[in-house]
Every structure is written in structure tokens, then in C-alpha cells.
Amino acid sequence: MRQTQGITLESAIAHLVNPRTANGYVLSERALPLGSQQHLSTYFAEHIQNSLADPAASAARFDYANGGALLKACSKLLNTKAGFVKQSVAIANELHSIVSADQRISPGALVVCTYKAANKSDPRFLAILKLDPSEVFQPLTKTDSAGRKYVTFKEIHNVIPTTGERLQKCAFIRKLPSGSADYDMMLLDLQKRGSKEPARFFQRDFLGAVPFGDA
């Protein structure tokens, strides 16, 4: 999966998962209108491409013996186009329950995508992206009381990562033949510098996955 090329998004949906603020938990009731928002298709496709090529991306496999709601939702999303919104909500609910129970885990936006790759025969892949908000500074031109012009900066909060920034937590899941012992996904489960998040919460607690080895 590392060499995936020619990514085309099939569908995408975003949910806000922030149980610590009023109106911070928002479940979308429909998929994003990618047909009229090509910039979003490009944005998510570039993040998928960059994350799969990240040297820290590793192979993993679902813990089938203890698999729960997330495993079932992923299986349904990979097998059919029906129920996309419903299954994405099930995935968001899993993340919400984990974030609610542990204050160390940063809230953010959860994006679920199905996509195809030009150089792969698989009919569909599934991407799960956790987008942690950050702050950026926007340049502004102002004039002081003496009429002197100067440039300053306005801080903007809750900005999602640009495609030039590295995503910290995401998974790219493929459909496997029944009974296969191969890996199920490539994933990133990184820690930000100074982060208080528990190690491997994304892989172990949320995805219910175990390391597979190199792929």
C-alpha cells in the first residue's frame, strides 16, 4: 500500500469529536459534496498519499478475536456503498467514547473516506483521518493613530492541518479475502512533541489493531 498512486476519492464525511466544549460533538448527516468541492477531494487525496508514503507508516492487523463496533463498521464500508453515513457515525462514536474517557487525548475532526487507487486492483480502500486543530497567524495591515501603516498578525484557532503538515493519526484499510492472514491496514500513530496522549491509543484502543510487521 505504500506505493499507492492515482488516488481518487469516492466519498468523504467529517464529524467533530470534542466532548469538552458546548456543541463540540457534531455528527454529519450526509457526506461531503465532493462533486462541487474539488478542492476537498484534492486536499484529502494529498493527505492520504503523503501519509501512506510516510516512513513511520506501519502495517497492522485487526484483533479479530476482540473486534467490536469499529471492525464491523469498516467491514461494511469496504464491502458496500450503502450505509456510508451510518457506519461513519459508528466510527465517530467509538472515538468520542475514548476521548471522553481520557482528558489526555486531543479532540478534533474525524474524517472517513472511501477511495480508489489507479495502480491497485482493489475496488475500494477506507481512510480514517484524525485531524487535530492548531493555531495559525494571518497577516493584517493596520494603521496606527499617527497614520503609520504596519503589518501585524491575527491568530486563528481550530485550523486543520495543511497538506504540507504531517498527520499524526490516520489509518488506511483494505479489504482482504476471507481467511487471509495478511495485514489489514497501514497506519500512523504518532505523538506530537510534548503531547500527553497515551501511547498507541489510536492503534490499540480505537482501531483495535495489532502490529503486523513490514509491508
Question: How would you describe the overall organization of this protein?
Answer:
- The chain contains four helices and ten strands, in the order ββαβααββββββαβ.
- The strands form two sheets. Strands 2-1-4-5-8-9-3-10 form an eight-stranded antiparallel sheet. Strands 6-7 form a two-stranded antiparallel ribbon.
- Helix 2 runs antiparallel to helix 3 (84-101).
- The model has no long low-confidence stretch (mean pLDDT 87).
- The N and C termini lie close together (8 Å).
- It is an alpha+beta fold.
Give a short synopsis of this structure.
The chain is α+β, with helices and mostly antiparallel strands and 215 residues long. The protein has 4 helices and 10 strands.
The chain-level structural class is alpha+beta
The share of residues in helices is 10-25%
Number of helices: 4
In terms of quaternary structure, what is this? single chain
Q: Which whole number gives the mean pLDDT?
A: 87
Record the strand order, biggest sheet. 2-1-4-5-8-9-3-10
Largest sheet: 8 strands, antiparallel
Tell how many strands the DSSP assignment holds: 10
Poorly predicted ranges? none
Name the overall outline: globular
Instruction: Give the DSSP E fraction (strand runs of 2 or more residues).
Output: 25-35%
Amino-to-carboxy terminus distance = 8 Å
Cα gyration radius (Å): 19 Å
Q: Provide the succession of SSEs.
A: EEHEHHEEEEEEHE
